[in-house]
Amino acid sequence: MTLQIADLNELIETIDGLLARKDLVALTEQLTPLTTSDIVDVLERLNLRERAIIHRLLSKDRALEVFEMLPPALQSDLLTGLQDADVSTLFAELDPDDRLWLLDEVPAVLAARLLRGLPEKERLLTAGLLGYKQGSVGRRMTPEFVTTHIGMTAAESIDRVRARLKDAETVYTIPVLDDSRHVAGVVSLRDLLGEDPDALVETFMQPVYTAEATDEAEKVARMCTDLRLLALPIVDSESRLLGMLTIDDAVRILEHEESEDAARQGGSEPLNRPYLSTPVVTLVRSRVVWLLVLAVGATLTVQVLSAFEATLAEVTVLALFVPLLIGTGGNTGNQAATTVTRSLALGDVRPRDILLVLSRELRTGALLGMLLGLIGFGIAGIVFSPEIGLVIGLTLLAICTVAAAVGGAMPLVARAIHVDPAVFSNPFITTFVDATGLIIYFVIAHAILHL
Predict the structure, then answer these.
(1) Quick one: DSSP state of residue 245?
(2) Residue ranges of the CBS domain (predicted)?
(3) Who contacts 415 (Cβ-Cβ below 8 Å, separation ≥6)?
(4) Vertex 319 angle, CA 316 and 320, to 5°
(5) What's the CA angle centered on 408, arms 390 and 301, to 5 degrees?
(6) Percent over 90 (pLDDT), the chain
């Protein structure tokens, strides 16, 4: 059973004390009854040196299980604290596709050394995956799988599965190949076990979905999960089988991409590691660039305010509503951007749908603006004057309409120019809506208040 948070915190305090006293015997006794996931939770809360000590105290099999469950960033950290022999063993025991996750994290010098230390067969399998570009599903597929042939029987196919049980990453979905190594269909292990042993595979194989190795990993992972597939055959441009994307790797890809999008929509870079094991310097580095970008963008807002300084001096009450208006505009734009970015990831919309999205967001923004504008008109009209209420109401209507349209369009524009929508949308929306919203505000104020 996995430890509860309170029990885990108490265990961490005990382990910290034992590490401080260098009582390795007692420390081993503490680790022995823990599950693999509990040990991973512990390691995620320790520093690099302590993590290496704990890992060395584990049995060989347990150490490998724990290492495989760690995020790639922590795997990279751990390698720097282990002896060369330990590093080579752990790296060699990983599946080829899992090695790619780790190699993407470690420095190039260490990556080359790790590859050189692999047995020749494993090195060739891993190097084959490295040949695909970053972000492609070719880097995430496993080259260790079982196949059968259209001319084989169910019994012969089961024998092939038995022969590959130790080294194949997946045996539950089995591609059926023709003489040219094209994927003709798939059979499941359940199908093989349930059919007559002498039945030819081609008589009961199922239609197959495939993806090309050069396709975007996130897109293929989404396809795999949407179709509820345990594994998806990955082929070359001529439909010859190259590997398999398993469901656990598909989920891992989606988790990684969604964590990245969530971080960037919140104005920071993804950590790619548990929060408590992330150095403060890394936290600062992940946020400072975005803060600088937004600070530079805010200078445009300052310029707009300075241009209407005389208006603010004449009707000082207008200044009270500036935070409300630009905040509402930014929130409206970010809501639209988040919705459309998510729809892009799911394949619900494409860049060519920009006019349809604009139409929907203009109407959505206008309705939101009317609702908020009526509330703003009522409150400001009662507290200050009907004219001020009218300025606030009309400004909210205009800002919400513009912000929703811009927020909905930006992710589609970003995807069209091959930029991450999560990176492009929010800083642009914040800067654009703040400055544009103030211009709209003061133009409406000038017209209604005759300034």
Answers:
(1) E
(2) 141-203, 204-260
(3) 344, 350, 351, 421
(4) 105
(5) 55
(6) 35
